[in-house]
Specification:
- With 319 residues, this protein is an alpha/beta fold.
- The chain has two domains: 142 residues, HUPs (Rossmann fold, 3-Layer(aba) Sandwich); 153 residues, Beta Barrel (Elongation Factor Tu (Ef-tu), domain 3), CATH 2.40.30.30.
- It is 32% helix and 24% strand.
- The protein is built from ten helices and 13 strands.
- Helix 5 crosses helix 6 and helix 7 runs antiparallel to helix 8.
- The mean pLDDT is 89.
Length: 319
């Protein structure tokens, strides 16, 4: 890399929510104004995976989706920090002096209000400013992004919304509709016997956070080629009703599944890559006393979804 050609920021950016977007737009704008390259330093895997070995599902953004979002926001390049146990033990000052500076030769570093790096997260904007005169880079701090009575947006708040099924609120904080990317697999085909064939989604990321149990209005984006997942494109969209949960009325194995009935769709999606955008929650998952009651409720869910779709205009939030 040429000397002093890069403007950097460091972070996990899980979710790429409105707070992240504000910082990333500042990064892209500053780099463009000064004719530099904008680079995001991030991690292939969330640092928690290294620090705790096994973690419960928590990821808001699949890696392939995160790259897509960063490109959409005008970032020129994404570089991955090799975060393993050895790297996690490096002090903030060593990280800065022996890795970041000689590798990327920053013209400027933009830090978020809660930026941390190095062992025990001791690296912060004060550390960056301390070394700025020595290595001749600028330090800019992005302010915390707030909404609704000065509430700071954070990935943890959004995770709580998703876990509890509040996908509408999650969209308000993300700036786009929450989605799950995955592979269509063969299910037990019970929905077909009820007159409502479904697709079963196997999430692409094992640590992906799935919305809480319930019935949702979704949009299903079908990818004709797997490599298209990383880029914005005009693949097929289909409205659908999605059940997340154990389907207690028709199954007894307590296995949580993601099953979607694509409204008015005819075709075979087995082995296809799809992305489910969760638009709104219809109701909680219920247990029905008879198959007839279940069929009646599914029919009501689909009618409700059709009415929702007739009024849907937020195509610009399908990132």
């Amino acid at each position: 890399m040429n000397d002093k050609e890069n403007v950097l920021t460091i972070g996990t950016f899980d979710g790429v929510h409105l707070g992240h977007q504000s910082l990333l737009k500042q990064l892209a704008s500053f780099a463009k104004t000064h004719q530099k390259k904008s680079i995001v330093l991030t991690y292939k895997h969330h640092p928690l995976e290294t620090l705790y070995n096994t973690v419960f599902p928590y990821l808001l953004t699949e890696e392939i989706k995160r790259r897509r979002l960063l490109r959409k926001l005008g970032i020129d390049e994404i570089q991955y920090i090799p975060f393993d146990n050895q790297f996690a033990s490096i002090s903030a000052e060593d990280f800065l002096q022996n890795y970041l500076i000689p590798t990327f030769h920053p013209y400027a570093i933009i830090a978020g209000y809660d930026t941390h790096f190095g062992r025990d997260r001791k690296g912060n904007i004060q550390v960056l400013e301390k070394f700025s005169p020595i290595y001749h880079y600028q330090v800019l701090q992005a302010e915390a992004f707030t909404i609704q009575n000065n509430l700071i947006i954070s990935s943890s708040i959004i995770r709580d919304f998703i876990r509890n099924g509040f996908v509408d609120l999650a969209q308000t904080y993300l700036g786009y509709y929450y989605s799950v990317i995955g592979h269509v697999i063969t299910g037990k085909q019970i929905g077909r016997t009820l007159g409502f064939p479904t697709i079963n989604l196997d999430p692409a990321e094992k640590h992906k956070l799935i919305p809480g149990a319930g019935v949702y209005i979704c949009l299903c984006k079908i990818y004709n080629q797997a490599e298209n997942l990383e880029f914005e494109n005009d693949e097929e969209y289909h409205f659908c009703v999605t059940n997340v949960g154990v389907c207690p009325s028709i199954k007894d194995d307590n296995e949580i599944t993601i099953e979607s009935h694509l409204i008015d769709f005819k075709g075979d999606l087995y082995c296809k890559e799809v992305e489910l955008y969760f638009l709104s929650k219809i109701r909680n998952e219920e247990t029905f006393e008879s198959k007839q009651q279940l069929i009646k409720q599914i029919d009501l869910d689909i009618r409700y979804a059709r009415d929702y779709f007739n009024k849907f205009r937020d195509w610009n939030k399908l990132w």
